[in-house]
Predict the structure.
Amino acid sequence: MKIVFMGTPDFAVASLEEIIKRGYDINLVITQKDKKRGRGKKMQFTPVKEKALEFGLEVYQPDDVNSLESLEKLRSINPDIIIVVAYGQILREDILSLPKYGCLNVHASILPKYRGAAPINWAIINGEDISGNSIMKMDKGLDTGDVLNRSEIDIDDQMNAGQLHDILMIDGAKLLIDTLENIENLSAKKQDDENSSYAPMMDKSLGRIDWKKPNIDIYNLIRGTQPWPGSYFFYYGENVKVKKAELSNRQTSSEPGSIIEIDDNGILVQTGEGCISLKEIQFPGKKSMKVEEYLRGNEIEKIILD
């Protein structure tokens, strides 16, 4: 089976590596362009490119995967299957219809729920207790293709998006191998569009805490935006990031955003419904610190947070 693999971030690396280890014939790896990253703005390979080069695979990085040049390159390979894992570009129908077995996508949700760019984050933000992976046969819609295989993963109520990402990354690779090994016997099932939902791309503004919301919604936001883009509030105009928090049973009649208590156990804040205890925070230009550590050399006043 001749395979073309398309992927870019860390999430895709586990799937690529698993395919390589199983001895599949990968004729080409397509990934996004290298970008400047970090404080020094040095040009860095994508994680998928790093892994592909490690195993001596040919890497192709077109500006537009749907260009005539890209299409001709794919036609020259004539792949049996194209595997897409968080590649970052939408494929035209000419490419989708090219391989014998179509283009298969590993998507980190139980489709049709959470179609779109950030299914892992939104599953936690919305308080889901189950997530998973779906292997779908891609069509021209956004994550609307027929599903060939799926798995389910329990979301622990203390799990953040980064932790769920790592679990689903490994699980998705295993599910992909199972799909490839049974490709002749799997029957694709249409998605129920009426039960679909959308998981839009994340941005930094999403992480601002609205203290008027119930504590459970704030808690899920903190988990769902960790490690990126992060959740935050303003303390005397300073943007303070929240790394960890816990729900509290404490009930007060104070205004939402009011700091109720400050001690080594955390910063207790009134929300629109119940309280939440901030356990680990990060002030601008400082490292992330547990509250008890921060209080050893700093003070926090009982004000109403913005």
